[in-house]
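2024-03-11 09:14:02 INFO receiving multi-entity request
2024-03-11 09:14:02 INFO entity count = two
2024-03-11 09:14:03 INFO echoing inputs for audit
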Amino acid sequence: MTKPAELIEAELVDGLCQRWGVPPSVILAEDAGYVLRMLAILAEAKPPEKNG
Amino acid sequence: MSKKNGGYSVPRKTCVLVLAGDFEGAEARCRLDVGMGAYLTFQRLADAQEPDKLEEACRKFGDEVLVDWNFKDDGEAIPADGDGFLRIPPELALAMLKAWSEAMTGLPAPLGGGSPSSEEDSQEPSIVGSE
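2024-03-11 09:21:47 INFO inference complete, emitting structure
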């Protein structure tokens, strides 16, 4: 079961708003290439979650 | 201010999608400098699986992201805009949208969603460069 695109979008924007302390309007105006590439790199570098 | 140089064109950040398989030889240059709002709109429309929204995504992509391509129909160049994008086969249009989405992050499957892998992956576009 996968999340609907609207939920993925809302979680992404809300997460960035909380992380950077800015409203959604600022996030939506940011350069998508830079933001997405940065998030992808951070996700790649994140250590795998431990079970238990 | 001097205008003797005829103005300065601000350089765009773009990438070139090079197609393989059934679409070998086709190349398309696309913009990479779009805002988060526009990118998320494309994702939402392309994932909607509804013909109307998919058509809107394709038209918007052709008008706002597509810069240039070498696509022809019976020897006549297809315009690199929304109308032209709607003239290409749907599987090619979707493959281009997916490849552009990957080019935006530099990594496959940017948001953890999108289409599952298939045997046709080898026919999908690859990104040969950006500037």
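2024-03-11 09:21:48 INFO post-check: Residues 5-45 of chain A form one domain.
2024-03-11 09:21:48 INFO post-check: Chain A touches chain B through 21 residues (CB under 8 Å).
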